[in-house]
Amino acid sequence: MSRYWSSLVHRLTPYVPGEQPRLANLVKLNTNENPYPPSPRVAAAIAAELRAGGESLRLYPDPNADRVKEAVARFHAVHRIEPQQVFVGNGSDEVLAHVFLALLKHDLPILFPDITYSFYPVYCGLYEIDHVTVPLDANFAIRIEDYAAANGGIIFPNPNAPTGCLLSLVAIERLLQLHRQSVLVVDEAYIDFGGESAIALVGRHANLLVVHTLSKSRSLAGLRVGYAVGQKHLIEALERVKNSFNSYPLDRLAIAGAVAAIDDREHFERTRQAVIRSRDELSGSLQTLGFAVLPSAANFLFARHPQRDAAELAAALRQRGIIVRHFKLPRVDQHLRITVGNSAQCEALLAALREILD
Ligand SMILES: *Cc1c(COP(=O)(O)O)cnc(C)c1O
Q: Do 230 and 186 touch, CB atoms closer than 8 A?
């Protein structure tokens, strides 16, 4: 605290990201990164951008990152998405920040689940947006009937985080029809691991915005690229906020790498299928060890052991060099969120758990 702080800064409760330990050799299953490397085309594209000693870095990048918007439109071409229906940002966290200010700050409170991505209440604090949390049902599912209240907007991840539970496109379309007066934001950070994207509904719904990231299914958490897809009037609101904040959110290397990653469909398919296979195997093995595991459509599992305290399990895993995420929050403080690793990492996790539970 300092007398030099603004009153807003005194009131902020910032987001706490999962830890990025410096120790090598840890089995890091705590922040839902992809265990596989990104497409080899990413490093090649970045190296090409850096040719001639990085001469191009002398110049500002394209403020609109048009090549990325075109690549996103190409990728979603079956849904007739045009580059003008795409907004890009420095990670989807930045895209979401602009979404809160541009599309979710109204007189009525916005709605999101009680158990969800913990950055949403942080943005509400930053931008002074009222919000009401809507409890997930007893099975940790979103019930759209519970979102009947008048609202300034609705946002949730699909699949939800940290539960991994998926809401159907039919339910999302019902919600869009019930709330034509406000924007529904579907944060699809994990959709490539098992769901159908709501981008299919963008053409039919003026109040739908879908947010994606290259951090999870494209293995590029370190490059910081995210995007949103929606009808032009929504994208225009985001561009207005972005151009009132930072004209160049994507640097030249990020633009080159993002385009290469989005265009490599073969690598994307292969690695996401590998994660899906490992997830389903790991879920089965955890259940064999006595865990209750929620059905996951994401690259992580949300699991609870009926006889063991979750914080103690997390600590015991940590002693064995394995880090998972534990949230000290109501309703879920007996759960662990475990990122799906590669086969060796999943094996190491299971071996450690067998030892701990023995
Ligand atoms: C990981 C994640 C994000 C943020 O992704 P970045 O693009 O890395 O900023 C957004 N929403 C949810 C639900 C996430 O899990």
A: no
